[in-house]
Design brief:
Length: 84
Amino acid sequence: MYLHIGDDRMVDLNEIILILDYKKLKKANQLSKYMEIFNNEVGKKVITDDECKSVIITKKNKIFSPISPMTLIKRVNAFSRLKP
């Protein structure tokens, strides 16, 4: 299954490692810490800089999304309920 993350982009659910709240990380000065952790392992894909709400860490990328982390998590949970 794929998760819509904004701007007509999709991510394979099996590739997602972590969904973070961009604004909370930035406010707590923790954004650079998380970016350093994943910096060497994954590439950066920016969807929108101006309205970024989520940081999605996948096995290959870190993606900045304009969709709130709660909305993304609700979508993931909806998909998990569909599985037999």
